[in-house]
Amino acid sequence: MSQQKILFLLNQLVVGGTERNVVVLSQNLDHAKYEIKLWTLLPGGGFESRVVNTPVKIHCLNRKSPRDPIFALRAAWQIARTDASLVHTFLPTIGFYAALARRLFFLRKPIIQWVGASNFESPRTRLYWKWLCGSVDLLIANSESVKQELIKLGVDPARIVIINNGHDLAAYKKPVDVAAVRSEFQLQPDQKLLLCVSRLVSYKRVRDAIDAVPHILAKGHNVKLVIAGDGEERESLSQQIKELGLTDRVLLLGNRADVIELRRSADLFLYPSEVEGLCNSVIEACLARMSIVACAARGVVDVVQNEKEALLVPERSPERLASAVDALLRDPAKAERLAAAAEEQANRRFGMPAFVEQISAVYDRLIAKGS
Fold it and tell me: What's residue 145's pLDDT?
């Protein structure tokens, strides 16, 4: 059987859940079976080195402005002329150019759109997604919540496949020097380490995790919160920390290469996001056997259930976050029971081999149908 050519489309290889899926596929798809090219809108990003070290060839389209019609036509024309057997676009921004390739330049190769978020609330967003969904052959939703939101947009359920994100389970079994990780943050002997791993963007509501810290301290707990991740809200969050007088209690770490080690060294995972597709950050906390307090957002409830694998509270409620943290810190036996249940079900549901196998099966089916 001849090698099939696949074109991946991605905005940029920054650190994020969807981007991590591209890395997993780049590293683990059968390269004897598939020749993969990855086109990005922008160069660089924290995950670029992970793809550079694979057989995947990266090409940057070098978009200068999102409002450049000449670039849009040129990018769509390039995609339309691809010699790939299939186009897999991973985000709606770059999906726009694949949709243009189909509608303006009659691209006949199958197009797959990955859908990893379910925030279709605004009329403008809904209108755009309806247009995009009508331009592709298949949508891969990473959770049942995302599928249901697509159906509400009017997408035929037969055109939607659910494939959960895949994770390298072996990475969570490697030895970790917990003492060395904890010493970095100069923890006091009785101090508990709380961890939040998130992009610093508004809908992740990291500000609520920071606002919860004074309430946790008021309940008598000696804690330090470290936040791994970066984004447009970093400056405003730094100012918030200063205004609350928490500079010795809350640390913004930026992007970290040792997130798994951080997870396995912390006492509790705190995640206040209000919008998710399928929440990689919570999945990874489960795999690290962490005690988890999170908001009951779509995409989070697809991963863990309240009082079974985690404690879930309403969105935008720092006081409720603090109360849930208090409950787990006061009841270590319950915290360990929830963490063990979270790890067990995450290992069963979110392994990397199943993810790669399901993606490969979708590719083979669409390529055979289109040939």
Answer: 86
337 falls in which pLDDT band (50, 70, 90)? very high
Sign (positive or negative) of CA dihedral 45, 49, 53, 59: positive
Per CATH, 4-166+351-370 and 169-349 having the same topology is answered yes
Q: Which of 251, 273, 247 is nearest to 262 (CA)?
A: 251
Question: What pTM value is reported for the model?
Answer: 0.80
Counting other chains too, the contacts that 68-74 makes at CB distance below 8 Å and 24 or more residues apart are 72/96, 72/97, 72/100, 73/100, 73/104
Q: Work out the pLDDT band at 371, boundaries 50, 70, 90.
A: low
Distance CA(112)–CA(19), nearest Å, equals 16
Q: Mean of the pLDDT values across residues 143-152?
A: 91
Whole-number Å distance between alpha carbons of 235 and 243: 12
Backbone phi, psi, residue 259, to 5°: -65, -40
Return the structure tokens found at 18. 């969807």
The runs of H, that is alpha helices, within the chain are: 17-28, 48-52, 69-80, 92-105, 123-133, 144-152, 178-184, 206-218, 234-243, 259-265, 280-287, 318-330, 332-349, 352-370
Whose structure tokens read 């390039």? 78
Percent of the chain residues topping a pLDDT of 90:
87
Q: Which fold has domain 169-349?
A: Rossmann fold (3.40.50)
Instruction: Give the per-residue pLDDT at 116.
Output: 87
- Tell me how far apart the alpha carbons of residues 198 and 192 are, in angstroms, rounded to a whole number: 20
Q: How far apart are the first and last CA of the chain?
A: 13
Place of tokens 């979708």: 362
The answer on pLDDT for 118 being more than 70 is no
CATH code assigned to 4-166+351-370: 3.40.50.2000
Q: Considering the chain, what is the average pLDDT of its residues?
A: 95
Domain edges within the chain = 4-166+351-370, 169-349
- Which pair of tokens denotes residue 209? 């995790």
Cα–Cα distance between 206 and 196 in angstroms, integer?
8
CA distance 103 to 40: 21
Residue type, 317: S
The residue assigned the tokens 């939607």 is: 160
Q: Which of 238, 167, 165 is nearest to 200 (CA)?
A: 238
